[in-house]
Amino acid sequence: MMYQQRMMMSPPPSHMMQQQRHHGDDLGHGAFGGRQQSRMGYRSENAGANGMSLGLMNGGSMSAPMMGGSANDPSSLSAALSVEDIQNRVFAMSKDQNGCRLLQEQLDYEDRSDLCEVIYQESLEHLAEMMVDPFGNYLFQKLLERVNEKQRLVIIRRVSSNLVAAALNLHGTRSVQKVVEVCATSPDVIEEDYDDEEGEDYGYVKDREERPEGGERRRTTSLPDLIVEALKDDAVRLCIDSNGNHVIQRALQFMKPEYNQFVFDAVCKECTTVGTHRHGCCVLQRCLDAANKTQKAEVIEQVERQAMKLMQDPYGNYVVQYVLDSCTAEEAFGVIMKPLGHIYELSVQKFSSNVIEKCLEKAPERVRQKYIAEITNCPKMNKMLQDQFANYVVQRALCVCAEEQCLLLVKAIRPHLAAMKNTSGGRRITARILKRFPTMDISMDMGMSPTADNLFDNGNTMMMGHLPTSTMGGNYVPQQHLQPSQMYGMQGSHMGASPHFQGGARGNRMPQMHGNDGSMMMLNDVGGMGMNATSRA
User: Fold this and answer.
1) Pick from 466, 517, 510: nearest CA to 489
2) Whether the predicted model's global pTM rises above the 0.85 cut
3) In the chain, fewer beta carbons within 10 Å around the N or the C end?
């Protein structure tokens, strides 16, 4: 009693407090990494009626007499702890930031098995509370890693009925993820002379049971089976929960496919519910990554059945696209076939238009021909071309279809080019056509005459001394705008044939030529008074 009172009365040195504050920051796991110190001490539950303090006041720092050792030694704060220092106080310490770190450090010392045993024994009665505590969950995770197989089995049995509730909790989800990760890689546990009633209480799964002659009964227990039993009835709920979905994804990542079958059963049964949820759609994609051949076929079959609904959903369309991306055309054949007959309706929608583009890319050639034929023969081609989403489908079709079909598609598009020449979608489609068929002349389709009157952006007359180039390619310049009097100094009447004509097909430079005396002449006003001499070359 006098020793504890002395610890309360002696304030810790300032340098000791600073050292304790920074010691073991790597054990705070990020979010609780020492920026904000707890200003509340904690009291032992067994300290008596007077509520005597543990001495861990003022930011959780311990007084110098209790710690012992040198204040300059970073490990002295942890190494000097004795069993008496933490006995009957583990749970209270686990709920404090610094106290939790201190306990975690003890579990790292291989020569402090006495302390580890105290931490383990005192934690058993409070595991469910520790799992969801902002600080205690870190001690739970560390404890789960450090104990032996049989101790781990005891922990799992005690928390199995609380796993779902913890998985739905912001802090508890970390604890359950660690349970899944550790148990997935743990060997089976052989128990000797076990108690049937204890097994029933904790809901374990009996894998194998044997009784050697003249010996005790033995049972082999698989830890992953315990996890499956605890989670399987709430799998759908976990899939669509902001915290619980991480537990399911961790199971898919670490556990073998045969143990994960409960996840596949759940998502296949409630494919639409899971697939159209912002978190559930991610779980479905991870299912495809973790599945064996049989499980993958089951998921694809369910996605195919619900494909029309999924592809029109803000989240479900990602599931359909992921099937198309991660599976072969043969595996996803049923999904690819679903949009046929509904291409226009799906193309004008924001989410499903992405799926149609993906189908055009992934479809086998014979199926792609059906897609192109439906687009080509669409009675609402004009609306499709001008729609903010469907025009991307048409662009994709122009890129992926065979040349013969592409010509038919272009033929169906050309009558509508004039109406959409001033829209961004129309310009993109025109660019796609010209990229696929560079020599194709579509000037008439754009409402432009092959004569010069319709070739210029600034009207029917050339202004400001510039000769625009033809949209038909090359250095075509219409002759009818050049009078014979304006051809002085040129070798021919066709400016495009003159060796002195400068400027590319896309340029906007004035044509230059040389007079008989070697001076450089410039065509300054084609529609006016002819050439004016400039400075000599």
Assistant:
1) 517
2) no
3) N
Assign 188 a pLDDT band (cuts: 50, 70, 90).
confident
Contact 81, 102 (CB under 8 A): yes
Phi-psi region of 480 (alpha: psi -120 to 50; beta: other; left: phi over 0): alpha
Tell me the two tokens of residue 223: 């830890």
Helix (H, G, I), strand (E, B) or coil at 522: strand
Q: In the 8-state DSSP scheme, what is residue 363?
A: S
Helices 172-184 & 149-159, crossing angle to 10 degrees?
140
Give the start-to-end residue ranges of the domains of the chain: 1-147
> Using an 8 Å Cβ cutoff, are 383 and 416 in contact?
no
CA distance 322 to 482: 61
CA dist., res. 27 & res. 29, Å (int): 5
Buried b (16+ CB within 10 A) or exposed e, 414-444: bebbeebeeeebbebbbebbeebeeeeebbe
Which residues, in sequence order, are bridge partners of residue 350? none
* DSSP letter for each residue of 149-185: HHHHHHHHHHHGGGHHHHHTSTTHHHHHHHHHHHHHT
Element (H, E) at 208: strand 208-210
- If one counts every other C-beta atom within 10 angstroms of the C-beta of residue 314, the result is 11
Report DSSP state, residue 486. G
- Please give the Cα distance from 146 to 333 (Å, whole number): 49
Amino acid at position 185, single letter: T
CA dist 403 → 241, 398, 406, 433 (Å): 49, 9, 5, 11
Separation of first and last alpha carbons in the chain: 110
Amino acid identity at 22: H
Helix (H) or strand (E) holding 310: helix 307-311
Q: How far apart are CA 227 and CA 231, in angstroms?
A: 6
Residues 198-244 have pLDDT tens digits of: 444 444 444 445 555 555 567 788 999 999 999 999 999 999 999 99
Asked if residue 343 lies in contact with residue 387, where contact means CB atoms within 8 angstroms, the answer is: no
Q: Write the burial class of residue 349 (CB in 10 Å: 0-12 exposed, 13-18 middle, 19+ buried).
A: middle
CA 311 to chain centre: 18
In order of 91, 434, 457, 471, 504, the CA distances from 476 in angstroms are: 89, 18, 16, 9, 10
Length, in residues, of the chain = 537
For the record, the structure tokens of 512 come out as: 């230059």
Judge contact between 415 and 445, C-beta under 8 A. Answer: yes
Tell me if 259 sits within 8 A of 225, measured CB to CB: yes
- Report the SS3 class of residue 523: strand
Tokens standing for residue 311: 């592809």
pLDDT band with cut points at 50, 70 and 90 for residue 281: very high
d(CA 34, CA 101): 10
